[in-house]
């Protein structure tokens, strides 16, 4: 029987049935409404839609923000979903849908989805999935299980500190967080800095400087623009710097790179930059590769966690 | 029955009997000789000395370098112990002493010693012990067990990258490693930079600039020297920056700070600096405190790991 996996992001909600570690059938996408009540309504409507057509075993939700997966409550805010903190999501959805529900941080769900979909990864000591998007999210799988830390905030590695001079402010309010450099908006900030005092005659991107989009820079780089290419190279260095820090902390077998920005990663370059900055013992055996599931990771992982929870509950002996 | 704990550092070897999570009797210290053969001779002599007087259950060694604790081999070099890489330490010591032997990275041993000595720590999700000395070593305890990573290099966090401009070279050859800022030699480098173009009339430390010792700076700060105080404050910021990155990766319950430099830490200042730079969800419940065992941590932890290994072996059912 399939499980309904839902990925709740800042701009859209995606929902699909998951069976055998993959999406089966169509993925439904709706825009994320404003406000917690409206989001819950949208989630309930999606659950109803899928329940109508098919018997489903449960409901797995991957959401932005810090989540206590035991209570299913969103315990930490995210700038992308104002008013979401404090929502007792599992309790609400379980009581309204009568479906077994699991709520998980989206980066954790995405990492777990990947180890479910790729059997070799499940046997590894440590797999770290890095979602490169508007921000950076990290999910850590140790011995096949999601590692959540003491306050469910493990892998909030978008906010590791990659510089020390208060150069770039992150949307979280802190300074010099990794995602202010290595995420999509980090690439924009890098190009913006490089375009200072550059005229549109020297580089056509300069005309767009104050309204620069990630895609503008990537297109210009593809078109041979030297400044844009240099910004994209710098972005790879910034991504590498964070991976180096994760290497020297967690010493993973493997990084899985996913998220909207991951399709612009030159993996050979990234591997080279990481190896250059890492102790040989660590980098020699390290693997870095693109995600297999890509944007389906959150849905697959959240759904798989429902199944894992169900199995665990069955193993508890009856009194 | 006690276990012999030995801590092998770059300058000295310390050995003592360990029972009930603490040192019993005297600690013997000898200088670390040069070369792997000579070090092994010194370790064997210490084992003989302690065996002569008392029945001992086993031998636990905490050593600098990356260690495979299953084989007991030193698999990664350390600048402090040239020629040490590749030494099959457990095999040699076990065959020569006939004692059950466990070999562990010193930062890991120190962290494990601390959770053995402080019962509340053993129940935590994650405890991170940070040894601030000439370099920085980190030991990670997850659910009461040493977390070693995929290549036994977890917690090589002295080499997390805290800046991005290749400003300071680390002794490992990489640039801008945490220990190049937050360890004892980091404080020296910071003061050295601040003393550029400063005359001895302006600051007496300037006279010693090219042969500066950590203690000179700490003494000058204690004596009211403004530049030295500023360097010590900067050093606290540098220590905090690394802890922030560990928070946003591992989300520990607690940091235990140990090592020779830890006695110069102003813990209230350090807590404030970390809280300022960390997501509220993480910092609100985070504890940072000095180690209970201090320099005995490596010996206690290595010895406790011998006992843990013995218990594990007994639990394996006989065929």
Question: How is this structure best described in words?
Answer:
The structure is a homodimer of 319-residue chains. The first copy, chain A, has a 5-stranded mixed β-sheet with strand order 3-2-1-4-7, sandwiched between helices. In chain A, a hairpin with a 3-residue loop joins β8 and β9 (136-142). Chain A is built from 11 helices and 12 strands. With 319 residues, chain A is α/β, with parallel strands linked by helices. The relative contact order of chain A is 0.15. The first copy, chain A, folds into 2 domains: 3-112 and 295-315, 2-Layer Sandwich (Nucleotidyltransferase, domain 5), CATH 3.30.420; 123-291, Nucleotidyltransferase, domain 5 (2-Layer Sandwich). The model of chain A has no long low-confidence stretch (mean pLDDT 94). The interface between A and B is large, with 52 and 51 residues.
Summary, kept brief:
The structure is a homodimer of 319-residue chains. By secondary structure, chain A is of the alpha/beta class.
The average pLDDT score of chain A comes to 94
Query: Gap between N and C termini of chain A, in Å?
Result: 28 Å
Q: Would you tell me which CATH topology of the largest domain in chain A applies?
A: Nucleotidyltransferase, domain 5
Across the major sheet of chain A, the strand order is 3-2-1-4-7
**Residue share in helices of chain A?**
25-40%
Looking at the overall shape, the CATH architecture of the largest domain in chain A is: 2-Layer Sandwich
Low-confidence parts of chain A lasting 5 or more residues at pLDDT below 50?
A: none
Overall domain count of chain A: 2
How many H/I helical runs of chain A?
11
Q: Rg of chain A, please?
A: 20 Å
Name the CATH superfamily classification of the largest domain in chain A.
ATPase, nucleotide binding domain
Q: Which pair has the most extensive contact? A: A-B, 52 and 51 residues
> Strand fraction band of chain A?
15-25%
Q: What is the H/E string of chain A?
A: EEEHEEEHEHHEEEHHHHEHHEH
Summing up helix and strand content along with how strands pair, one would put the structural category of chain A as: alpha/beta
The CATH C-level class name of the largest domain in chain A: Alpha Beta
Question: Biggest β-sheet of chain A: count, sense, barrel?
Answer: 5 strands, mixed
Shape by Cα distribution of chain A: globular
**Number of strand segments of chain A:** 12
Quaternary structure of the protein: homodimer
């Amino acid at each position: 029987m399939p499980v309904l996996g839902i990925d709740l992001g800042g701009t859209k909600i995606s929902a699909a049935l998951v069976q055998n570690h993959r999406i089966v059938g169509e993925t439904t996408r709706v825009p994320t409404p404003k406000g917690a009540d409206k989001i819950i309504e949208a989630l309930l409507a999606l659950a109803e839609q899928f329940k109508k057509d098919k018997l489903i075993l449960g409901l797995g939700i991957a959401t932005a923000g810090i989540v206590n997966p035991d209570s299913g409550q969103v315990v930490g805010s995210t700038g992308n979903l104002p008013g979401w903190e404090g929502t007792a999501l599992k309790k609400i959805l379980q009581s309204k849908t009568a479906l077994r529900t699991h709520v998980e941080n989206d980066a954790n769900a995405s990492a777990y989805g990947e180890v479910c979909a790729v059997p070799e990864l499940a046997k590894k000591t440590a797999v770290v999935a890095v979602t490169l998007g508007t921000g950076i999210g990290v999910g850590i799988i140790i011995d096949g299980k999601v590692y959540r830390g003491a306050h469910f905030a493990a892998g909030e590695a978008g906010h590791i500190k990659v510089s020390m001079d208060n150069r770039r402010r992150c949307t979280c309010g802190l300074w010099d967080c990794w995602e202010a450099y290595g995420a999509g908006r980090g690439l924009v900030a890098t190009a913006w800095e490089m375009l200072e005092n550059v005229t549109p005659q020297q580089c056509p991107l300069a005309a767009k400087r104050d309204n620069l989009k990630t895609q503008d820079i990537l297109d210009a780089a593809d078109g041979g623009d030297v400044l844009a290419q240099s910004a994209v190279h710098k972005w790879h260095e910034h991504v590498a710097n964070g991976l180096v820090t994760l290497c020297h902390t967690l010493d993973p077998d493997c990084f899985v790179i996913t998220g909207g920005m991951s399709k612009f990663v030159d993996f050979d370059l990234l591997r080279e930059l990481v190896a250059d900055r890492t102790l040989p013992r660590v980098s020699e055996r390290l693997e870095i590769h693109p995600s297999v599931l890509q944007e389906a990771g959150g849905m697959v992982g959240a759904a798989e966690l429902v199944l894992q929870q169900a199995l665990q509950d069955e193993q508890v002996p009856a009194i």
